[in-house]
Amino acid sequence: MSTQMQQLYQQVILDHSRSRIGNAALLREGAAGPHGSSHQINPTCGDEIELEAEISDDGAIAVRWSGDGCSISMASASVLSELASENSVEGMLDIEAKFHELMHSRGTIVGDEEILGDAAAFSGVSKFPARIKCALLSWVAFKDALNQAQTSLKE
Amino acid sequence: MSTQMQQLYQQVILDHSRSRIGNAALLREGAAGPHGSSHQINPTCGDEIELEAEISDDGAIAVRWSGDGCSISMASASVLSELASENSVEGMLDIEAKFHELMHSRGTIVGDEEILGDAAAFSGVSKFPARIKCALLSWVAFKDALNQAQTSLKE
Amino acid sequence: MFSRLRNDFPILDTRVGESSLSYLDSGATSQKPQCVIDTFTEYYSQRNAAVHRGAHSLAVMATDAFEAGREAVADLVGGAPEQVVWTKNATEALNVVALGIDRASHGFGGEAAQCFSLGPADSIVVTEMEHHANLVPWQQLAQSTGAQLRWLPVTDAGELDLSDLESIVDETTKVFAFTHVSNVLGTINPVDTLVARARQVGALVVLDACQSVPHMPVNFVDLDVDFAAFSAHKALGPTGLGTLWGKTDLLNSLPPVLTGGSMITTVTMEDSAFMDAPQRFEAGTQPVAEVAAFTTAVNYLAEVGLEKIFDHERELAGVLLDGIAKIPGITVLGAADNRIGTVAFDVDGVHAHDVGQYLDSQGVAVRVGHHCAQPLHRRFGVTATTRASTYLYNNTEDCEQFLAALAEVRPFFGVQ
Amino acid sequence: MFSRLRNDFPILDTRVGESSLSYLDSGATSQKPQCVIDTFTEYYSQRNAAVHRGAHSLAVMATDAFEAGREAVADLVGGAPEQVVWTKNATEALNVVALGIDRASHGFGGEAAQCFSLGPADSIVVTEMEHHANLVPWQQLAQSTGAQLRWLPVTDAGELDLSDLESIVDETTKVFAFTHVSNVLGTINPVDTLVARARQVGALVVLDACQSVPHMPVNFVDLDVDFAAFSAHKALGPTGLGTLWGKTDLLNSLPPVLTGGSMITTVTMEDSAFMDAPQRFEAGTQPVAEVAAFTTAVNYLAEVGLEKIFDHERELAGVLLDGIAKIPGITVLGAADNRIGTVAFDVDGVHAHDVGQYLDSQGVAVRVGHHCAQPLHRRFGVTATTRASTYLYNNTEDCEQFLAALAEVRPFFGVQ
Ligand SMILES: Cc1ncc(COP(=O)(O)O)c(C=O)c1O
Ligand SMILES: Cc1ncc(COP(=O)(O)O)c(C=O)c1O
Description:
By secondary structure, chain A is of the alpha+beta class.
C-alpha cells in the first residue's frame, strides 16, 4: 500500500466518515436563532450536502447536515461540525481560511493541529487534486450558511 | 518553369481565356426556342458563371454565358461554347461525361482530341485538385441549362 | 494478435507508482496507437495548411487528407463520404441535429426545413439510459418548441423496457433519439425494433453511436437510422473530433447552427446562402490534423477487424463479470447478455470515489461518478458507481489486476 | 533571434518542386514549431485521459494540462483563467455569443440572461471588413430576433469610416461586433474609439481577435471588450481549438448553446441546471491534447515576445509593400499605416487563382479568393484577391522570393 494512500485515508478520516458528527435531521424553517442553510453539489461525482448553521445568543455555532458522498467529503463535514461546536464565529472563519489554504497547497504545507484539530488530517488530500473538491464541499456550504446566519444576526 | 505548369496553362487554354467564345449578353426572357439557364458559383474563390443553352428547331445548340473567374474557368466556358456549336445534344452529353471523367482522373488518362476538341487541353488540370472545380464550373451550368431546354422541348 | 497489438500503445507501459497500468477507462476515452500519434508529427511537419482554400501545394495535400478521412469513415459505418460531417465531439454532433430542428421550428431553412418543424402537439422520445449528451439537447429542444419529452424506461436487468413502446412512441413522435450501447450498463439496444416503430409513426431516428462504433461492426445504412453521432477519441482517434452522420437529403435541408466561413456560397452584408452537406455544418477552420489522425485510427481498426474486437471484448467482459460475482458486496448495474465490455457496479459501504482511489493506487484506471447519466443512476437508486470498460488493447491480466484490487477495497475501508 | 527560430519549424524545409518553400499564408493558418508537435506525442504517450472525471492518475495529469492552458492564455491576453473558454475554433466562439444572445432573446437563461435579450427595436452593428465568421452569425441573430443589422463602411484607404459612427452605433445598439485586425487589409482598427462609443450607448462589445492575438500584444482587460474570440491554429497552435474570452459575469449569465455532459450540475429526465463558465460552454469531451499543444505554443510566443514579433512583421510588411509598388499592374487593397504583415492585392489582367497557381510553381504559398470576406471584396470592386501574410518565422528572403515570382506573373500570362 502506498504511503500516499495512507496519508489520504488517515484513520481519523475513516473514523469520521463512519461516525459522522453533525449528521442530523435538518430543522429547515423550524430553526430557532439566526441561521442559514446551503446546498452544495459536486457535479463530477454527484456528491451533495445540505448544511445548516445556527448562531445562538452566546455566539456558539451549531451545525447540522445531511449528505451523500465519499469518505473524504463525509469526514470533512463531520470534522467541520466538531470544530464548529468548539469555536467562535471568528475562530471558524480563520479555520476555514487555513483549511482552504491547506487544501490548495499540493502537499507543500502541514496543517497546524492546534488550530485545525482533526481537519489537519486532510493534508494528504491536497496531493490528490481530484479530491480537493470533496474535502471542501461541506466547507463551501458552511461558509455560505454561516454568512447568512451572520446577516440575519445583524438585522 | 515546371512542366506541370505548362501542362496546366497550355497555350490553347490561355488563348480561350482571352478571346472567349460564347461570352455574350444573356437573352433571359427574350430567348426564342426551348432554352434553359443556370447560375453556378465556386464558393472557394467567388468565381461565377451564368449560362444559357438554347436548342433550335434543327437540334443545334446555342450557348451564351457571362461570368467572372480565373483563366481555367473562362477558357473552359469558351471551349464548351465552341463545342456546343459543333455538336448535337447527344454529342454534348457524351462530351460532358468524358470531360467529367477526364477531370477526375488525376492525370491518369489522356483526353481524346477527336471527341473533346480543345477541351482535351484540360488534361493537365486534373493534376491540380484545387482547379478541377474551375474547369467544371461552366459544364455544371451547361448540363443544368441543357436539361431545362430538353424538358421544355418535350412539353 | 491482440497480445501483439498491445505494444502499439505506448501509454500502456506507464507505471503507476509500483504497479503496471491496467487501463479500464476506455469508455471515457481510448488510448492511441503509435501510428495515430505519428500522424500528428507527419501532418504538421509535411502538409499543414488551410483546406478548401488557396491553390498552393500544401493546401492541396491538407485538403486531400481532410477528404480522405470522410472516405475512411464512410467505409467503416456505411454511406457516402459526403454523409460524414466533422464536429468537435459527439456532443456537438447531437446538438447540431437538435439545434437544427430548433431553428427549423423557428422558421429557418425555409420550405425544405419544414419537415423538421416541431410544435406543442409533437413529442420527442429518448430513453432513461441516455448519456447527458443525448438527453439535455432534447430537453432544450422541448423547452424551445413546446414539444413533449418522453422516455422509455429501463428494466432492473438494465435493458430498455419495451412494454409501452407503442404508446410512448406514437403518432405525435417526430424525433426518437436513443443510444446504441449504454455507456454505463454496456447493454446493446435492439435498434431494429426501435427503428421499426419509428418508421411506423414517421419519426426521425437519431442514434448515439458513441459506444458502439468503436467496439463492434456498425452500419448506419443497414440500421436505417436518419442521423448518428460518435467521437473519434473513443475509437483510437484524437480529441477534438466527432462525427455526425446523416442521410444526404436530411443533412441538406437541416438548417446549420454554427455559421461563418467555408460553409457559405454567397454573402452580402444583409444575407447569406449556405452550402450543402458536409460543408454546410463545418463553419470555420476545421480539425484537419485530427481528421488525418483519425483516418489512421479508422484504418487501424479496420485492419484488426471490428468483429474480432467485439469478440475479444466480450471475452474480457466475461472475465470481469465472473470475477466480480465472486467478490462479496459488489452489485453490478444491469445484466444484459447482449453487451460490450463495460461494467458499472456499486460497492456496498464504500463510495465510488473511494473505490476508484483505491484501484488507482493499485495501477487500475477506472471511472467513478455518474458517467454523465444521472437519471439512469437515480433509476438504480445510486448517485455514483465505479465503471470498468475494456478495449481491444486490454488483456486478461488487466482484468485480473483489477479484480485483485477490487477484492481489497472493502477490507481497506474496514467494511465487511 | 528571428533567423534562429525559423529552424524550429520543420515544415519550412519543405521543397516545392525545385524551389524552397516561402510560406506566406499564415493569415489562413500558421505553421507549428517542433515543441508544439512534440506535445502531441508526449501527451498521448504519457497522460491521455478524460479530464474532470475519474480519480485515476492519468485523469489528474490530463486535467492539470487542460487547466494549465487557461492560465497560459490568461497570461497572454489578460483576465483570469476561468474567463477562458475552449471552443473548436474562433468561429464557434463567435457563434456561442451570437447564439447565446439568440437563446436569451427566446427566453432561455431566465432573469440573469435578460440583459442579452434583443428585439425588433434593437440594432446590431458590425463592419464592412468583417470575416464571414463575424458577420453571418449576426445576420442570423438579426433574422431570429427582428433586430436591425447595421455596419460601419470602409474607406478607400482600407480603414473604418468613422464619420457616421454616432448615428450607426446609437441608443438602439445592443451589440457592436468588429474585428481587431482585418484579415484582408491588415488594418489595425481603433478599438479604443469603438469601445468608447459602445460604452456611451451601453452596447456589448464583441472583438474578433483572430488576426491580432497571434501578431501583436493584446490585452482584453485593457481594451475593455466584453467578449473576444481567436483561434489556436493561427497562433502556432493546433487545429481544432479556439478561445472565447469573456467578462465573468457575462459568461455566467449567457445561456449555453451546446449542451450535454460535463457542463451540468443536476440532470433529471425533465430538466437540467448548468455550471458556471468556463465549463458552462464546454459540453462533451474537450480538445485536451490540443489545449496541451496550444499551451506550448503560447509559452513559445511569450518567450519570443509579441512586441518583437509585431516589429519583425512590420518590417516584412514594409519589404512586401515597397517591393509590390515597384511591380507594374498590381493594386494593393487598403493602405493603412497601422497594420500587420498582411497584404492583399489585385493583379491587373490575371485572376487571383492564376496568380496563386503561378506563385505556387515558384514555391510561394499565398492564399487566393475572397478570404471569407465577400462584402469587403465587393466594396473594392473585385471578387477575389491574392493575399500574402507573414508570421514570426518569415524572413526577407521569403518576401524576395515572393516578389521575384510576382514580377513574372503578368509576363507568364501574356498580359502587359
Ligand atoms: C478575422 C478572422 N475572423 C475569424 C476567422 C475564423 O477563424 P477560424 O476559421 O479559426 O474559426 C478568421 C480566420 O479564418 C479570421 O481571419
Ligand atoms: C453514450 C455516449 N454518448 C455521448 C457521449 C459524448 O461524447 P463526447 O464527450 O465525445 O462528446 C459519450 C461519451 O462521453 C457516450 O458514452
